[in-house]
Amino acid sequence: MIDPVAVTRLLDATTIEELWDVHTRAMADYGFDRLLYGCTQFRTSKSLGNPDDFIVLTNHTPAYIEGFVQGGLYFHAPMLRWSLDHDGACSWSLLDERLATDDLTLEERAVIDFNRKHGVTAGYSISFKSLHPRMKAAIALTAHAEMTQAEVDAIWRADGATILALNNIAHRCILSLPYQSPKHPLTDRQREVLGWVSDGKTIQDIAVLMGLRPVTVEKHLRLARHALSVETTAQAVLKAAFQNQIFVLDR
């Protein structure tokens, strides 16, 4: 049965950092002490999009993140490949089945070896239902290093429905909270001008509304496009909206 207190804490979180702290604590109570959440809203048929645009949340060690995320190993992770083609939850026992049938590429085997070195051996993956074609999100729930996959599967049989529901709630909450690339954050001025553009205001209109010169408004828009790595202002508005940087009541 879902704990209403845990759900309330997730729904009441006002920042991604606060929500992530609540969620990692909740999952640790079920035996999953390391989580890795990833989401892209800019997926294409050939790419997951620019890694700078991913939402990545984790409490893994820096050494693990350096190799798996920053080093690009995630792209060849067998469970990530499963997540791209499926929705729902999947036991990591799938890896043993594929190993037994010699159904893994050399790159996938390298990922499994790397995970073993870091105690990432038992767990579950959840692939969330996408809200639009260019979106994909998933979370890897890693169990305590001393736990076996059989023990994890037993936990899932007992509490899997609750764990899945809590992760779906956390995922939907993440999508509702502001997030931006730490490398190129938008300033308040840049957010404001993008908001006015989305309302159909011209450069001259925005200059009057904000008490700025038109050339200054154009500068803010140019810097916003650069920060968001897009070519047009329309693309900047769309991307900022996806990241909940505009159209929000309280940042």
Overview of the structural elements:
The chain has two domains: 4-176, 2-Layer Sandwich (Beta-Lactamase), CATH 3.30.450; 188-242, Arc Repressor Mutant, subunit A (Orthogonal Bundle). It has eleven helices and five strands; from the N terminus they run H-H-E-E-H-H-E-H-H-E-E-H-H-H-H-H. It has helices at 4-12, 16-28, 62-70, 78-85, 93-100, 106-117, 149-176, 188-198, 203-210, 214-228, 233-242, and strands spanning 32-40, 55-58, 88-91, 123-128, 136-143. A five-stranded antiparallel sheet has the order 2-1-5-4-3, with helices on both faces. A hairpin with a 7-residue loop joins strand 4 (123-128) and strand 5. The protein is elongated. The chain starts with a helix and ends in a 9-residue tail after the last helix.
Can you describe this structure in just a few lines?
The protein has 251 residues and is an alpha+beta fold. It contains eleven helices and five strands, in the order ααββααβααββααααα.
Question: Which tags fit this structure?
Answer:
alpha+beta, Beta-Lactamase, 5-stranded antiparallel β-sheet
Order of helices and strands: HHEEHHEHHEEHHHHH
Main β-sheet description: 5 strands, antiparallel
CATH class division of the largest domain? Alpha Beta
**Uncertain regions spanning at least 5 consecutive residues:** none
The CATH architecture classification of the largest domain is 2-Layer Sandwich
Care to count the β-strands? 5
Mass-distribution shape: elongated
Query: What is the oligomer described by this structure?
Result: single chain
CATH domain topology of the largest domain: Beta-Lactamase
Beta-strand share of residues? 5-15%
State the separation between the terminal residues, measured CA to CA: 33 Å
User: What's the CATH H-level homologous superfamily of the largest domain?
Assistant: Transcription factor LuxR-like, autoinducer-binding domain
Residue share in helices? Answer: 40-55%
Q: In which order are the strands of the major sheet placed?
A: 2-1-5-4-3
Number of domains: 2
How many DSSP H or I helices? 11
Measured on Cα atoms, how large is the radius of gyration? 21 Å
